[in-house]
Amino acid sequence: MTLDTQIAAFLQDVVNAMGLALTTSIEETPDATRINLHGDDGGVLIRRGAEGLQALQHLAVTTFRKQLGEDKRIVVDCMDYRKDKDAELRQMARFSAEKARTAGVLQEIGPLNPYERRIVHLTIAEDPTVTSESIGDAFMKTVIISSRK
Hints:
By secondary structure, the chain is of the alpha+beta class.
């Protein structure tokens, strides 16, 4: 059984224990392995800012941290909630980069968790005319986007 299959089975066991009618599927992306949850009870995980989904993500990463190592990333998604949010975040980063470049004014996005900050930094890294940095000393930080001089 591959690590991805083990993680998907673990998550399936957790949602079953929660009494939720959800099924897991595995999707390989360039950035990470995505474990998708689908079913009638998906709303339970994505309500209130997707706190339940965040908790499942944390549980999976913490449980399999040693096997994942530094290179492998796992993303837990439910009914494409994260996929849609990721696309929204990329669009916001591109818009902020454009504003920083044309107006020459620093742009702030946040506060963001580490996963969200990574998406913003990777999106900004695609544009050689702007740069980004995280500021703050807590789990949630703000990303500052500025024009390269």
